[in-house]
Amino acid sequence: MLFSGIPFLYYFLPAVILLYFLAPKKLKNTVLLFSSLFFYAWGEPRYLFLMLATILVGYVCGLAIAHSQRKVWKKVWLWSACTVFFGFLGYFKYAGFFVDNFVALTGISIPALKIALPIGISFYTFQILSYTVDVYREDVPAQRNLIDFACYVSLFPQLIAGPIVRYRDVNDQLASRKHSIADATQGVERFLIGLSKKVLLANLLGEFCDVFRVSDEKTVVFYWSYALAYTLHIYFDFSGYSDMAIGLGKIFGFSFPKNFDYPYISRSITEFWRRWHMTLGSWFRDYVYIPMGGNRVSRGRWLFNILTVWMLTGFWHGANWNFILWGLLYAVLLSIEKLFLKKWLDHAPRFLSHLYTMFFVILGFVLFAGESLSQVGADLSGIFNIAQIPFFGTQTQYFLRSYAVVFMLGIVGSTPIPALLLRKLEATHTGAIGITVLKPFVLLCLFILCTAYLVDGSFNPFLYFRF
Predict the structure, then answer these.
(1) Separation between Cα atoms, residue 264 and residue 414, nearest integer Å
(2) Domains of the chain: which residue ranges?
(3) The dihedral sign for the CA sequence 96, 102, 105, 109
């Protein structure tokens, strides 16, 4: 079930909100749990049992770790849990990749594995894994209430695509959280902004990408336009979903961590990754990079740590070589910046450092978007005109003119400019009154417009279902 879908917006969500606020305090987590299980089962009921098994293992192992008196037994339970979690993730997400590559390498004939990827498995596995490790480290107490623990793992606002919410962030909120009209209002506003980013920008930019793929007139400008469109598309698709998740959490009394902070204004790749998918970056930092020694090791080991973390980051996104290469690209860029380039970028003109950053971010997303290495090769060949294709053409001109407004809105909307203008208006007495009066009307219009697009049956996939 998509957040940006009629069944969710008009049936599921209103019903859950009604049941939630009618339920007594002791049953609110139960309502959220069963609502979340229904939400997940709507998409693929077969894998509901996989998630429930993962929850049960995490719950039992967490309690076992907390109650074990000897360090060795704590480690046994921790590694037992990790084996199960990575076993599930490895089989359902990566087994086919390894088998296909083994066949390609050895020539041995093995039937292809036809394993469907359970939706959200990467996200809920990382959440429950962080909980188990934190219990082992004694950073958080083990959760004794199975309902509360299952609610944390399966909570539908962030179940499918994050943000990756750590147990330490919501431990107190699971037991006791406050609800207010002000928080609910903020949550609705955040949700509607995210929905608008998804439906009115990401979907239309995704349409442009699809138009490019089926076009029989490929030009250099068309390739670059596609690369920019995909870069904007993935930002508004994923950040829009994160906004919707954070907004929904706010409605139900939860405070989820921020996941995006205008990454496309960055002046370095290092800064970009501090602003993009922030919960994933901090997860790999705290549970992989720092335990490996971080930067408090020899230079050679430090570079190896960076390489390992970013290869895993790429592989986490999908079982394909283009994701691994995408992660390794960032490993190289970040290593170069940490060794010497970052100092120059900090003192370089803002235009040059921003141009450098966006050049590699856009190329990175061309690599990320490819369904195969051959497609990535063709896209890069077109971008750099290795194949000597035309620079411009009539189809390119037509589609750029058709989507010009969407591109302009996407570029401006990916910067803090709209938020800064809004804050300046709010700082004035007249502006504050106008915004207070107009904001509900504008949000309602956006919701109606989104509904119209969805009822029309427009392009409405969710990109991160791939992961």
Answers:
(1) 7
(2) 6-177, 183-455
(3) negative
pLDDT digits (tens, 9 = 90+) for 218-255: 999 999 999 999 999 999 999 999 999 999 999 999 99
pLDDT in tens, 153-210: 999 998 887 799 999 989 889 988 888 999 999 999 999 999 999 999 999 999 999 9
Quickly list DSSP for 59-124: HHHHHHHHH--SHHHHHHHHHHHHHHHHHHHIIIIIHHHHHHHHHHHH----PPP--PPPTTHHHH
Do 266 and 357 meet the contact criterion of CB atoms below 8 Å apart?
Answer: yes
Q: Which of 185, 17, 467 is CA-nearest to residue 193? A: 185
Give, for 197, the enclosing helix (H) or strand (E).
none
Amino acid at 275: R
Helix ranges restricted to H, 276-349: 278-284, 299-317, 321-336, 342-347
Residue 317 a catalytic site member: yes
Q: Which two tokens stand for residue 378?
A: 């063709």
Give the separation between CA 447 and CA 453, rounded to whole angstroms.
Answer: 10
Does the global pTM surpass 0.90?
yes
Indicate the Cα dihedral angle 236, 333, 357, 386, nearest 10°.
-90
Task: Indicate which residue of 233, 277, 317, 354 is catalytic.
Answer: 317
CB-based contact 279:259 (threshold 8 Å):
yes
